[in-house]
Amino acid sequence: MVCAEAAAHLRSVVSLNAINQGQDPSHLDPLHQDADRTIQELRAAAVTDPSYTRLRECVTSGFPPNRYTLPSSLLPYWKFRDCLYADGELVLYGQISVVPAAHRRRTIARLHDSHRGVAATKRRAQQTVFWPGIDADITSTVQACKPCQILQPSQQQEPLLCDDHPSRPFESVSADFFSVARKSFLVIADRLSGWLVVVPCGADTTATHTIRLFCRYFREVGVPLRLRTDGGPQFTSTDFRNFMERWGVHHAVSSPHYPQSNGHAKAAVKSVKHLILKTAPNGNIDNEDFDRGLLELRNTPNFTG
């Protein structure tokens, strides 16, 4: 029986966002509706993979005493058998998930999205995913990457190793648009810490521009599990919905004609709007008064402490 820490760690692999299949979560097990989308997709793939199903059965009931009685597809797991555990549909290697064969190529591609070297990509994989031969697969993928080989330095050197109840910062965020002095702004607020990000948008609040703003936000602070917004056209567009699915974010839209259901974002808008009106009434927030005000706004503890 897998330990609670291992199960908790499995559910934390949202940081990887390794698989982006675009599957409708309503088709998945309702018991996992609130889980990370990546885990949902791994579970769904595990159920439909006959070899993975046999592996899970061996992990649950015990491997045979002799390796030669194993199916050939399971032989690579023999030397790891004492480190394998079952968690529902998934198999864990220690505290990380064993990826079904159908998702390995996509997982490797996601691991190499940063276009780091072999050693750095392996270190990233060791935090989140496993399968027999993963190190060799990473090496061949990096060596086959044309941009990496073209731009590889002559003496490559890796860096030195030096309603909602979120459990960690930036797990769940709210967002909304507002305007001051005919200039539009996007505010994104963390639902646990209250950390605010304010982005000037000018006059462009289209879905395309909104997607780019969220890409930058994800790049800077990480990808949340959940996003709550109102029913604005940029948030309800097909492009934005597809964008949220690609990045594995559960997007909740407030009830029509009842914006109070997105009250967390509305409260953040109120705070920031008052700050702008007091420190930059012309809408130009590129000044020290606004910077100091936003810093203090972020440093002020909320009800969670």
Description of the structure:
- The chain is an alpha/beta fold and 305 residues long.
- Helix content is 40%, strand content 15%.
Q: What is the number of strand segments? A: 9
Q: Ends: how far apart? A: 36 Å
- Residues in helices, as a percent range: 25-40%
Largest sheet: 5 strands, mixed
Q: Tell me the strand order in the biggest sheet.
A: 7-6-5-8-9
Strand content bin:
5-15%
Radius of gyration from CA coordinates? 23 Å
Mean pLDDT score, rounded?
81
Written as H for each helix and E for each strand, in order along the chain, the element string is: HHHEEEHHEHHEEEHEHHEHH
What can be said about this structure in brief?
By secondary structure, the protein is an alpha/beta fold. Helix content is 40%, strand content 15%.
Spell out the key features of this protein.
305 residues; alpha/beta; four-stranded mixed sheet; 9 strands; elongated; nucleic acid binding; RNA-directed DNA polymerase; EC 2.7.7.49; RNaseH_sf
Blueprint of the fold:
Blueprint: H1 4-11, H2 37-48, H3 50-61, E1 84-87, E2 90-93, E3 96-98, H4 104-111, H5 118-126, E4 129-130, H6 134-143, H7 146-150, E5 172-180, E6 183-190, E7 196-202, H8 207-221, E8 226-229, H9 233-236, H10 238-246, E9 250-253, H11 263-279, H12 288-299
Parallel strand pairs: 3-4, 5-8, 8-9
Antiparallel strand pairs: 1-2, 2-3, 5-6, 6-7
Helix pairs in contact: 5-6, 11-12
GO biological process, one term: DNA integration
EC number: 2.7.7.49
Protein name: RNA-directed DNA polymerase
